[in-house]
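User: Run a structure prediction on this.
Assistant: Running it now.
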Amino acid sequence: MIQTADRLDTINEYYFSIKLREVRGLMAEGRPIISMGIGSPDLAPKQEVLDALTNSLHDDLAHQYQSYQGLPELRQGFADFYKKYYNVSFSIDNEILPLMGSKEGIMHVSMAFLNPGDEALIPNPGYPTYTSVTNLVGAVPKYYDLTEANGWYPDFDALEQMDVSKVKIMWVNYPHMPTGASGDLGVYERLVAFCKKNNILLVNDNPYSFVLTKKPMSVFQIPEAKEVALELNSLSKSFNMAGWRVGMIVGNPALINAVLKVKSNMDSGMFYGIQKGAVEALKNEQDWFDDLNEVYNRRRELIYQLVHKLGLTYDKNAVGMFVWAKLPNNGVSAEEFIDKVLYEKNIFIVPGTVFGSNGQGYVRFSLCVKEDKIIEAIKRFN
């Protein structure tokens, strides 16, 4: 038996990989499963984006290796996008790096800045990939609590009491997944100050800032952030391009160059046609986001009805692509609850514990479900 690397002992197969295999098995048995698990947009990009992709296929450069830094016009598109919607300026020469989705950026950043034994501050609850990647590079996850009582924001008094002498990276994600906490410039300001004081790289993971939000925010709206921060962003959620795998990381030249050193040894550039499509998508005006949010708002109102049917509560001020709902205090765990709904009503939702121990007592519903399917789900409880 060929032995696997020791690093595999530090991680498990991704929850959604396991659970969706179970759900597909139930569907193969003929069960009418309605999946509300994954935040994978079911809507299409604009037609102009699709046309840009297909029209590019006959260009001379279309099928060659591409630059590790992406097409200049793509970097310019990202720069224009940040200036227009966040009022933040970046140089296209050395402060913007296109990525094959921001998820790969989590690995690249971790490989660039974490040595074995270093620690990474990770939100609880938070995106599970922060933990798995930290483990894969031999570093140590160190969790900071987010709680409903504190608005799902960091407790800065508690952070000040922590031993952060070995911490190299702090992961932050606002608008927050899974809770939908919207983010706040005052919170960003305190995070930047905390990381400057402790010589920690602050990494803001920011793919949800246009989904059901009033105003998109970036950590770089705090002027001092360029000294200590990187920000990941993505076209997956806001542009309906999750399967295209296109995102970006922005920050000061020294930090971006460190990430580029890793990335340039991991891939051979993003496919030309995808870059051309992304350039076109980044030209979208505010009406694109408004129309998209009309769809998500209608779906969210229906999900609220389903949540009521299930006897759960929720925060109407939450934003993003999910509804984070609280279970009644009746001793039923999140895992037991979602399995009961799955096997009795053929509806798949996600237990909050996937995102950390502070997710116990909560479940998450995705808005990437068509209205007729949500209505069908509601009827199953009549």
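The chain is about 40% helix and 15% strand.
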